[in-house]
Amino acid sequence: MSAPKYHLTSYGCQMNKLDSELVESRLRQRGYVAATDEGEADVVLLNTCSVRQHAEDRVWSRLGKLRIRKRSEPGLVVGVLGCMAQEHQRYLLTRMPHVDLVVGPSAFGDIDDTVERARSKNAEVAAARAATHHTRGKRDVAGAGVVATGIGVSGDTIVRDVRVRPHKSQAFVSVMRGCNMPCTYCIVPTTRGDEVSRPIAQIVDEAERLCGDGVTEITLLGQTVNAYGRDLGDGVTLAALLAALHEIPALRRLAFITSHPNFLSPDLIAAMAALPKVARYLHLPVQSGSNRVLKAMRRGYTTERYLARVEGLLAAAPDFELHSDFIVGYPGETAQDFDDSAALLERVRYAQSYVFQYSPRPGTLAAELPDDVPREEKERRNQVLLALQERICLDKHKALVGSVQEVLVEGPSPREPGRLTGRTVHHRIVHFDVPAGGTDLAGRYVPVRIERALAHSLVGSALRETDAEEAAVPQRERATPA
Ligand code: SAM
Ligand code: SF4
Fold this sequence. Notes:
binds S-adenosylmethionine; alpha/beta; five-stranded mixed barrel; disordered C terminus; six-stranded parallel beta sheet; 15 helices
């Protein structure tokens, strides 16, 4: 009998992508193989996101199509994993009978057993149907109804199979789950529960195993990653974790996302400045440039306090770049509030910003307020911020033309396979031509001379070994951003 095939789609944040890797590793250990096409899979899994309505809509639409397919394939297993499984479990079980599995983000530890149970239940249904020449009816799409949700048990308790990862030299490591912050618009604390940090020793062990398998760049993940450790006590902090990981000889770059402005502490700033392997960017979402809106969002800081923290960081480590998230169209956001966001974006001169149109999430405090900024106006504000951000990016990129950047090569450029793509220590994307006689450079750190600036990336040429030695000035001296 051939091995059963699965097809897994991940929506949303990096945390979800990492959870998906975990799910895949469990299934592969159990003998499953990845299907290249969803149509040939015996098990179709959707690892979902609830942060905005748009992400949920995409999943509802996929489920509609799977319902049709399941009418003719009763053995097919359809699974909804992640935040929507947690948030909509009742609806999925009562109104979507073709869904076999509903597995919340904290219940991935034994996902292979859960999938197996659903497969054998469906096989029984399919056999019974074949035996009775059952005609089509509502029960044809009845799912196995296997549920595993609940908050608190973490997938991180399982020993990770470090060989399952998309890039040979880069890996994500989850250091904490959940979130304790009271942001009025956000569904994450509901779907992912309270903050739970992993012990330092467990994280270092995982990082060492990853580095032993060829990883040189690690990105630590947490919803408020710089609050890491506060539930553990004993003075465990992100600064201490960074220092511990820094000792791993094979590790060359260490990044962490996403930070909350309230936890950008002096000891963390000192660690970021002092530890040369720490990547030189900080994702520190501000959400709004208006104190009135920040207060309504319950973000817990003012723009003045935010800017003071950023200035503190840049005074200690001037080579850092800031990244941000903005929400436009929060209930009651006036034209002036929005202008304040635009002004703050200009003032900080972020290297990158994600801009989100406010999307009411049922059950959150903000969802009780009128969603009073019209859709077209949200769209306009979104475009204005994006255009501003693009201009700033382009200016910063132009200032880098002529410089040499150390690029960690990820592989062929997705749009131009003749070129290679990688990232700088500031997380900038660089495309460059494959050098003559080019060997497989994926996973290597290559010096690239920047020749052209685009809004979202840089274009350059790889230096030959001899030129590279000549240009071998420490990275941070050359890469100072505009
Ligand atoms: N924990 C991180 C933080 O506090 O910045 C980010 C986590 S959240 C999943 C990612 C981003 O989604 C947030 O920074 C916010 O900008 C955006 N977001 C969250 N809820 C939203 C909502 N209801 N509507 C629009 N954007 C939202
Ligand atoms: Fe959501 Fe706020 Fe927690 Fe970020 S800090 S995950 S925006 S509640």
